[in-house]
Amino acid sequence: MPAEPARTTDVAALALDYGDRLIVGTAREMHRAVSSRVFRATRLVGGRVPESLHDAVVTSVYGAISGVLRVSSGSVRAMASRGVGRPIEAGPRGRLVVAALNGLIGDELRMLDDPQAITMAVRVEGDDVPATSWPLAQAFRHGTSHPVIFLHGLCENDESWSNGAKVHGTTYAERIAAETDGTPVMVRYNTGLHISENGKHLDVLVQQIVANWPVPVTRITLVGHSMGGLVARAATNHATAAGETWQHLVRDVVCLGTPHAGANLEKVAHLGSRLLRFWPESAPFSSILESRSAGIVDLRHGYITRDEWEGQDLTGQWGLDRIAAAPLAHAEYHFVAATLGASQGHPLSAVLGDLLVHFSSATGVGRTGPVVDGARFEYLPSAHHFALLNHPQVGDWLVEWLNARTRNPQALPAPRQA
């Protein structure tokens, strides 16, 4: 029996829960910190009586607000369980809201078994397609032996690849279907989970795709935007460690704006949360920053394996001990980096990169050297992070890379050094 769809009432209940936990909770803790400092001066004259009266009133007020929010959340959730409210994923805007929620708190949604938690799946026209023989055969009736698997980034979904389609007149998927021997396959996943966990899920999903594809699979291409590139690398790493075989079919791994060596924005968020704890009045705001998902925390240093985060308090340390994952020796790695400025040396480029990912990280250069030896990279100036989801130049590169290997399938890259 299929699970009940998430409804607008589920979203409203979640908003009330977080309003209580983060907004009211933060305001209450900040109020206590400020009042404690103020009442230090009155204790010498009036003792603790004024402070006790104030605390009683404040506790009562905040408790009442919190109680109203909790009761309202429970009532709205009960309405959702009775089928009240429109299915949130009935339209593209609702699906985008669900994708954003999963990026921010997807690990918690999954833990609570919330209906808004996304399960990794192949997607066609906004719906999940089970990776079994009949559904895949119906969804990909004209599927070729070369699936090109697209993996979106944080807080995005399978429809994000259509950004700017009205302006450019096409998408990567349309160009690949029309100009190469590839068949585009869109995948949606919960971006709030650990990247290594999503890599494991992708490993399983690709195994199912290969086993149940309408025709025998002879070649696979992985295309990832931002976090999606890390998930692709995590999946091949997991498959290799587990002794799977599908990864041997991968001929190209394309990473668009992927923070291989970490994302500066997540590093800033981590540093900000630590700095806020220095002052009692600002410490409550630290809890807001620290409520970010495991997937976001993994972006700080581009973690793709479980060993890099398991057993560690990743909100309490920088975690620079990234473990190198062996690349596929028979695959070409294409890293595409963008910058806001017209050149790498432009001040905007030097400081912000493509807005979210620095140039060196997108090209796979970390503190200890290249993340993937022999990776080829391309540079897109005057472009922001999300432009990489659908850019004419990137589309040209994709078509060129896929067709180059089609024309000469034996032209494999030389084995990389360990």
Description:
By secondary structure, the chain is an alpha/beta fold. It folds into two domains: 8-88; 121-263 and 321-407, Alpha/Beta hydrolase fold, catalytic domain (Rossmann fold), CATH 3.40.50.1820. It is 46% helix and 11% strand. It contains 15 helices and ten strands. The chain has helices at 8-39, 43-46, 49-81, 92-111, 133-139, 165-168, 172-179, 195-212, 227-241, 264-276, 283-289, 294-298, 347-352, 359-362, 392-407; strands at residues 121-124, 127-129, 147-151, 183-188, 220-225, 250-256, 332-338, 365-366, 369-370, 376-380. Strands 2-1-4-3-5-6-7-10 form an eight-stranded mixed beta sheet, sandwiched between helices. Strands 8-9 form a two-stranded antiparallel sheet. Strand 5 (220-225), helix 9 (227-241) and strand 6 (250-256) form a beta-alpha-beta unit. Helix 1 (8-39) runs antiparallel to helix 3, helix 1 (8-39) runs antiparallel to helix 11 and helix 10 runs antiparallel to helix 11. The longest helix has 33 residues, at 49-81. It starts with 7 loop residues before the first helix and ends in an 11-residue tail after the last helix. The model is unreliable at 268-286, 317-321 and 411-418 (pLDDT under 50).
